[in-house]
Amino acid sequence: MAKKTFEEVELPTNPNLPPWVITPKEEKLIFERWRKKTFERCDALIKAYINCSNSYTPFEAMKNCKDINKESQECVAKYQKIEYLDQERDILIEEKKEKRRNYLEYLKQLEAKQK
């Protein structure tokens, strides 16, 4: 049996910790979500640049697709700001609060069954 890597192990958040405590693994998840959403928002511009650059040789593409490339880079830069990263943190904290509420409700149900 092969050992699992750190990325493959799903570590649950301790429900006894406050939801605003973010683990390094959760911080990595936040960053990945942030990056994915940024590129989704700029997907049309990035695809336009790829289509433009594929229709030329590399040196011609640098010259002919310069404007489209600049637009796509500006789009990505617009969304890769701390405010959007903070929004992703807020989303994760809300998810953790909901999971904690569900967990506490589950514990209450178990306690009621035992009585």
Automatic annotation (TrEMBL):
<comment type="function">
    <text>Required for mitochondrial cytochrome c oxidase (COX) assembly and respiration.</text>
</comment>
<keyword id="KW-0175">Coiled coil</keyword>
<keyword id="KW-1015">Disulfide bond</keyword>
<keyword id="KW-0143">Chaperone</keyword>
<comment type="similarity">
    <text>Belongs to the CMC family.</text>
</comment>
<dbReference type="GO" id="GO:0005743">
    <property type="term" value="C:mitochondrial inner membrane"/>
</dbReference>
<feature type="coiled-coil region">
    <location>
        <begin position="82"/>
        <end position="113"/>
    </location>
</feature>
<keyword id="KW-0472">Membrane</keyword>
<dbReference type="InterPro" id="IPR013892">
    <property type="entry name" value="Cyt_c_biogenesis_Cmc1-like"/>
</dbReference>
<keyword id="KW-0496">Mitochondrion</keyword>
<dbReference type="Pfam" id="PF08583">
    <property type="entry name" value="Cmc1"/>
</dbReference>
<protein>
    <recommendedName>
        <fullName>COX assembly mitochondrial protein</fullName>
    </recommendedName>
</protein>
<keyword id="KW-0999">Mitochondrion inner membrane</keyword>
